[in-house]
Amino acid sequence: MFTEKIEKDRERAAARTGGKAKGKDDGLTPEQRRERDGKALQEKQAKKAAGAGGSAGAGTGDANKAKK
């Protein structure tokens, strides 16, 4: 009887989240995940740098040092 309640609760929770379990169930090893995330971060930084290409000293923090 108690297990039936737990199963119903789990079904309700799955319905609320759309059936997606949040977690690391992407089939990757921790090393593969680090590589994937590292590549994504590098791409993001490259895109940000390309967007700020015309700005002198953008994102370096030099402006804050000069004010002090």
UniProtKB/TrEMBL annotation:
Transmembrane segments: none
Occurrences of domain Small EDRK-rich factor-like N-terminal (ranges): 7-34
Residue segments, region Disordered: 1-68
InterPro entries in alphabetical order: SERF-like_N, SERF1/2-like
Domain of life: Eukaryota
Compositional bias per record (Gly residues), positions renumbered to this chain: 51-60
Ranges of Basic and acidic residues composition bias in the record: 1-14, 22-46
Family: Belongs to the SERF family.
Entries under PANTHER family matching the protein: SI:CH211-39K3.2-RELATED, SMALL EDRK-RICH FACTOR 1
Protein name: Small EDRK-rich factor-like N-terminal domain-containing protein
Originating species: Papaver somniferum
